[in-house]
Design goal:
With 263 residues, this protein is of the alpha+beta class. The chain is built from 6 helices and 12 strands. It has 2 domains: 169 residues, 3-Layer(aba) Sandwich (Trna Endonuclease, Chain: A, domain 1); 76 residues.
Length: 263
Amino acid sequence: MHDTAGRGIQAFISEVIQRGGRAERLDHLPRNPVEVRGADGSSRIVRVRTRIDGDWQARRQDALPDTDDTGSQFWVFVDLGSDPPGYFVLPSDEVAAGIAAEVDLWMADVPGRTHTGSHAIPLSSVVHGKDCWDLLGLAAAKDTTLYTDDDAAEAEAERRARNRAKKAGAGAVRKSAEPEAVEDLRLRVIADRGGYRVKGRFDPATGVLEITAGPMEGRRFPDPTTAAGAVASYISGDTETCDGGTSWRLDQPESTPLRSYLG
């Protein structure tokens, strides 16, 4: 997961350079933001979030502007799952407002909740920022000869060498005020039962399914069939048996049954 974040930042830096700007990863700040200098020489601090599939992950605390210790003016959402990769640029205050609106509803649903934990950001929330490079003072068209894979490898090696030198001089590894939000790569799934829509996250590697919204929220089950039966029994009050492969569907417009998706 952390490698995915690093790949996204490096891909973003490559795009910035090919569009006439300069970029530097600010390792000394929490959440590793990137300083971008546009073609006009102006500087902007950018937070980069990366996904391969599913949603991008932020923090619920990001709904509160005063918790942004990076001083960012913009967020860039990198989609490495598309070919070529997609880039979505949004002002930081707009991202914070969007998170706040959803978190407020989430907190009102169960009194006593706090602004902590991960917050998923779907494509629909950022799609209007696709390729808005002008917000960063960059050109709409890019020159692919300005930055190559060799350049990227060299830049990454230099960055790591600088970090090792800093750590050796300080005698200790820098500790962030708060840990980096971890990107959730599990499949988003849904099931409809007895008038309820239940949402969950399914890990194909382990088979575990966690209920993330609806009845039995927070419960984890060893497989989709056990999860489907538990939810159905909870809603009906009787012992129910269900086929997890058909009960759960991908939380996407196509609504593909889980069994069909897994083949």
